[in-house]
Automatic annotation (TrEMBL):
Entries under InterPro entries matching the protein: P-loop_NTPase, Phage_terminase_lsu, Terminase_L_C, Terminase_L_N, Viral_DNA_packaging_terminase
Protein name: Phage terminase large subunit
Pfam families in alphabetical order: Terminase_3 (PF04466), Terminase_3C (PF17288)
NCBIfam families referenced in this protein's UniProt entry, alphabetically: phage_term_2
Taxonomic classification: Bacteria, Bacillati, Bacillota, Bacilli, Bacillales
Residue ranges constituting the Phage terminase large subunit N-terminal domain according to the UniProt record: 36-230
Transmembrane segments: none
Coiled coil ranges: none
Domain Phage terminase large subunit C-terminal, chain residue ranges per copy: 266-408
Length: 426
């Protein structure tokens, strides 16, 4: 049994906190007092990484007065329901909620000893990087953070008397990611690595465990990453022609009046998500700016239409998977007036991919699922020769298929305009 007493700060009654070791999963106990600058928590899904870090960092803040913890996730919108909620659960569990000042609007949390937690999204870089005096920084779902942003964060947490520490948590989705190079291949100095899987988490219910174990037969590639916590070996990426950068749609439209909207949709239901992807295209200069996405499981067609209407794209031309003519007709009935089927045909996937490969693609950092798919969409390997084929794997392609559909009208128009004029007898 350990006892933590807070000191200093405002004259509130001292918190007498009794935290028994048994509240932790055993695999994490060696990391309670880690002293290294970089601390990596990676592995399978549901392994207890996020919960452990919320508990450990809360204890650190209680033990060390006036400590500032910055929690970063790629989108600010995703913070409230994930990592912020995780902290609130931990405060309840430790029975300290009444001693804290919690701002529901800014999500700032103040401890009686002057320690604080601030939550920021990687999507507002200016705000994020303007925060000073940070002692501890937790980058949650670090896989979604660009290397650029990570480099900036590293620079910001330099100097100061007390030792500054980073905590990064993530699933090792692709071995091609900067996280692998940074902490595993040519590791920085002063790193601690903690690897866990669902087997290390005794708090999971049977249903969750079953859903993880089922992946073994249904989707071995995902099983390796999400159940075993192994680095995803997704092979050769289909798209290398993209980067994550912030931009404003209104400014792009102002600067370049050749920009056109491209909206594509792919259908899913229970096991696959329904998706929508929106970009601005400058066909002549082969520039493509992806700025919005929908990625959601379990939507009926009326719900899917409602989402698209709420996102503001009811009036746009939406090019959708032609295999689902009935869904397309239904969605039209639900208000997506200009939805149309993509022309499919022999070789349409490869032709479509080759067309997308011709563009310089800029992805807005908010489009986290698109980034994930672009990172992982890969060519299949020939089992006999071990060589890559030119066929993409049927995985990580829900938004990418939608993107391909959305560009189809441009591709077909374009082919006409670039045909040599003598073909037309001119
Ligand atoms: N020490 C704990 N006490 C109580 N519940 C826990 C504990 N550790 C984990 N859990 C529960 O187990 C589930 C999975 O844990 P958690 O979300 O921390 O896993 P994770 O490794 O962050 O998963 P992912 O990789 O999917 O983000 C959550 O519902 C969490 O509340
Ligand atoms: Mg987590």
């Amino acid at each position: 049994m350990r006892k933590f007493n807070t000191e200093g700060g405002r004259p509130l009654p001292a918190i007498n906190l009794n935290v028994d070791k048994t509240v932790f999963n055993r695999a994490y106990l060696p990391y309670l007092n880690t002293r290294t600058r970089y601390n990596i928590f990676y592995g399978g899904a549901g392994s207890g990484k996020s919960r452990f870090l919320a508990m450990k960092l809360t204890l650190d803040l209680l033990k060390r007065p006036k400590t500032k913890l910055l929690v970063v996730r790629q989108t600010f919108a995703s913070i409230r329901d994930s990592v912020y909620a995780e902290f609130l659960d931990v405060f309840d569990m430790f029975q300290i909620t009444d001693h804290l000042i919690i701002s529901k609007s800014t999500l700032n949390i103040e401890f009686p000893n002057g320690s604080t937690i601030i939550f920021k999204g990687g999507d507002d870089e200016t705000k994020l990087l303007s925060i000073s005096g940070v002692d501890l920084c937790w980058v949650e779902e670090a896989f979604q953070i660009s290397y650029d942003l990570w480099s900036q964060l590293k620079l910001r947490l330099r100097g100061g008397g007390q030792k500054k520490q980073f905590f990064l948590s993530f699933n090792p989705i692709s071995a091609l990611h900067w996280l692998k190079k940074e902490f595993f291949d040519n590791p920085l100095d002063d790193v601690t690595i903690c690897h866990t899987t669902y087997k290390d988490n005794r708090f999971l219910d049977d249903e969750y465990i079953r859903s993880i174990e089922e992946m073994e037969t249904r989707d071995p590639v995902k099983y390796a990453v999400y159940a075993l916590g192994k680095w995803g070996v997704m092979g050769r990426k289909v798209f290398e022609n993209w980067a994550v950068e912030s931009f404003k749609v209104s400014e792009l439209m102002k600067e370049n009046n050749a920009m056109e909207m491209a909206v594509g949709m792919d259908f899913g239901y229970v096991s696959d998500p329904s998706t929508l992807i929106c970009s601005l295209v400058d066909v002549a200069n082969r520039k493509l700016y992806i700025f919005d996405e929908l990625y959601e499981h379990g939507l009926l067609n009326n719900e899917l239409a409602r989402r698209v209407i709420d996102m503001g794209y009811a009036k746009e031309r939406i090019v959708a998977d032609s295999a689902e003519r009935k869904s397309i007709d239904e969605l039209r009935g639900y208000g997506l007036r200009k939805i149309q089927p993509a022309a499919k045909g022999a070789g349409s996937i490869l032709t479509g991919i080759q067309y997308v490969q011709q563009f310089d693609i800029i992805v807005h950092p908010d489009c986290e699922h698109t980034i994930n798919e672009l990172e992982n969409y890969s060519y299949k390997k020939d089992k006999q020769t071990g060589k890559y084929t030119n066929q993409p794997s049927d995985n990580f392609n829900h938004l990418i298929d939608a993107l391909r559909y959305s560009l189809e009208p441009f591709r077909t128009n374009n082919r006409l305009t670039t045909l040599p004029s003598n073909l037309f007898g001119i």
